[in-house]
User: What shape does this take?
Amino acid sequence: MNVIGFNGSARKNGNTAALIQTVFEQLEAEGIDTQLINLGARSVNGCLACMKCFENRDGHCIQTKDPLNDWLDEMKTADGIILGTPVYFADLSGQLKCFMDRTGMVAIANGNMFKRKPGAAVVAVRRAGGVSAFHSVNAYFTIAEMIIVGSTYWNVGYGMDKGEVAQDGEGQQTMRNLGMNMAWLIKSIEASKDAVKAPETAVTTQTNFIR
Assistant: This one.
């Protein structure tokens, strides 16, 4: 089992990454592998609205000058996805928005290929705008038919300077609870895969007997 996280901050090791790592610590304690990809240093182009993903339906974007298609492949095999962002002008970062626009379109064009995967938003904010950024990421999960993982509060940590989110006690606990909830959900989904098949077999056998 594995979870892939995307850091939408321009800072590789800033507050957004630190919050994601707090979630990762809980996942890893539950035996779930984690991987963090930083979007900030890489130029992620926006969606061209060319609709080629609906024509090709190959699970990829026609744009190939950035590693987005590699990320799509990793998202398809992941058991859970975390999208993290700082708050820029009361909403998510441009890097993450471009990422969401393109991966979201490809997912929809290919039968909502992230359907029923657990997804969690992680937001780092200095003061205001955290909730609007949180809702923007959750809107992505919703249209992709993913399962949104919640915590004991909105998944927001407060801090401006690098590492300052570590001083937000409630934010840190929220991230730890988020990690535990995500681990529980992933394990529950994994355990249910075989359990779901058993009733179907039983119903089929009973129907054949009646005939």
